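Why should sequence recovery work at all? Because a backbone constrains its sequence more than one might expect. Tight turns favour small or flexible residues, buried strands favour hydrophobic ones, and helices have their own preferences. The token representation captures these environments compactly. In the example below, the structure is given first.
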């Protein structure tokens, strides 16, 4: 079996038993003659040894390539949804690539500003922004606020105009287009029964635009929708453009943002549309729906920019074979560094970077070190038959909503984040220690 062939070989073993598919790995991935995995010319097992495990390894080339693809596909002005993965290094990278930063809390805003974001690169989201969060963006002057409720319009009417530069506050209106996103219920946001945005169908979206236009220090620049996350169907995105186009055209708005939500492949037998295909589908639908050509169509993905850029390295600590039941492989992380399997039942591949071309006939459940049966990393994994205690084990496609949703459950310190590029590795977030955890206590 050749390396990374799972998605185009048939007939043959099921994809999960073959080596992990190439499209799940970062762009700078290579395999040595001995079958060892390298990213950006660095041996992955050596990275795990140098920085310890668990460890998030991000390939800068992949991050930059995806950001560039976004700018190429939609034009300038797109945003990176920082909730997917945020630290100063990531914010700087997205800024360098010309993106705005979508932030949805004062914490995300603080990191974006600490990374050097100019006000005009900030887009503030949130269905329940505090006065302090709104005031912070207003005070910057030049940022954008995506308005989500009539209560927020009332708050903005009080706060806008107080900006440092006396500028009018640019806003977009978050609309709920009433679209089924075909994704996990917890991450679908665009149906009528939602806490987000103003319904188009009920007329609330139009009323919100009209109400905001009466606020003197506010300028309505566009409409915005985000219907959910990990969406694989381009027709769902095309539908957003169709629903929003009349609203943007009738009200003479300058911008229509389709939000984020583009899915990525997590498993060898999955494939996802590219950012370029996504943009083509959205732009074509907008044109078909009669959106005037002067109206800018934009997007703000998170996952599609960062997920495949990273992998998590763990160390195998125990192998427990329960005859007739199943095999358990326990690693030194778990639900604290990747809660997605527990939260959404998400699947991942797993492989050994010391032998990445090996078939994976050995069925096992990969579990973490937390004190819960539900602490599962990969429910139905396949690994090489010689997997053993001490091995470095990798789960790919962990760049989105892994580090950003990591917790300190069981007082586990969050793993470090390492960026690799052209043969060198740098720690951009160090490992959390017990001293870090104790620092918050009085
Ligand atoms: N824009 C808005 C307003 C959002 O709420 C989100 C994500 C995005 C953009 C970016 O969505 P993306 O392109 O990353 O799908 N924790 C979940 C995902 C939650 C997404 C929340 N909002 C997960 O791990 O699957």
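From this structural description, the recovered sequence reads:
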């Amino acid at each position: 079996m050749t390396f990374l062939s799972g998605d185009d070989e048939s007939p043959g073993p099921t994809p999960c038993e073959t080596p992990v598919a190439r499209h799940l790995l970062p762009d700078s991935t290579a395999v040595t003659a001995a079958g060892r995995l390298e990213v950006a010319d660095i041996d992955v097992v050596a990275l795990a040894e140098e920085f310890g495990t668990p460890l998030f390894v991000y390939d800068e080339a992949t991050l930059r390539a995806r950001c560039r693809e976004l700018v190429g596909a939609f034009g300038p002005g797109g945003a990176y949804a920082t909730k997917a993965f945020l630290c100063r290094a990531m914010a700087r990278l997205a800024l360098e690539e010309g993106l705005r930063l979508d932030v949805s809390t004062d914490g995300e805003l603080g990191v974006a500003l600490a990374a050097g974001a100019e006000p005009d690169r900030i887009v503030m989201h949130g269905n329940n922004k505090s006065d302090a969060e709104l005031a912070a963006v207003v005070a910057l002057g030049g940022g954008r606020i995506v308005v989500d409720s009539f209560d927020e319009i009332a708050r903005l009417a009080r706060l806008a105009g107080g900006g440092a530069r006396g500028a009018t506050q640019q806003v977009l209106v978050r609309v709920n287009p009433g679209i089924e996103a075909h994704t996990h219920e917890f991450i679908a946001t665009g149906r009528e029964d939602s806490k987000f945005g103003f319904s188009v169908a009920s007329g609330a979206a139009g009323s919100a635009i009209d109400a905001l236009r009466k606020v003197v220090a506010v300028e309505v620049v566009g409409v915005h929708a985000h219907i959910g996350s990990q969406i694989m169907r381009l027709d769902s995105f095309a539908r957003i453009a169709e629903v929003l186009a009349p609203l943007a055209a009738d009200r003479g708005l300058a911008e229509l943002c389709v939000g984020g939500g583009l899915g990525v492949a997590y498993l060898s037998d999955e494939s996802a549309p590219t950012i370029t295909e996504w943009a083509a589908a959205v732009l074509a639908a907008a044109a078909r729906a009669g959106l005037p050509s002067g109206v800018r169509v934009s997007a703000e993905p998170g996952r599609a920019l960062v997920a495949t850029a990273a992998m998590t390295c763990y160390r195998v600590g125990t192998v427990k074979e329960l005859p007739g039941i199943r095999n358990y492989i326990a690693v030194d992380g778990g639900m604290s560094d990747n809660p997605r399997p527990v939260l959404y039942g998400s699947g991942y591949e797993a492989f050994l970077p010391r032998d990445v071309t090996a078939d994976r006939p050995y069925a096992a459940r990969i579990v973490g070190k937390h004190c819960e049966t539900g602490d599962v990393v990969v429910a139905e994994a396949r690994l090489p038959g010689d997997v053993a205690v001490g091995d470095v084990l990798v789960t790919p496609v962990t760049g989105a909503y892994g580090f950003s949703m990591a917790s300190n459950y069981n007082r586990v310190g969050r793993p470090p984040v390492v960026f690799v590029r052209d043969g060198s590795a740098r720690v951009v977030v160090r490992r959390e220690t017990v001293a870090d955890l104790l620092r918050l206590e009085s």
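A few observations help interpret the result. Confidence is low (pLDDT under 50) at residues 1-15.
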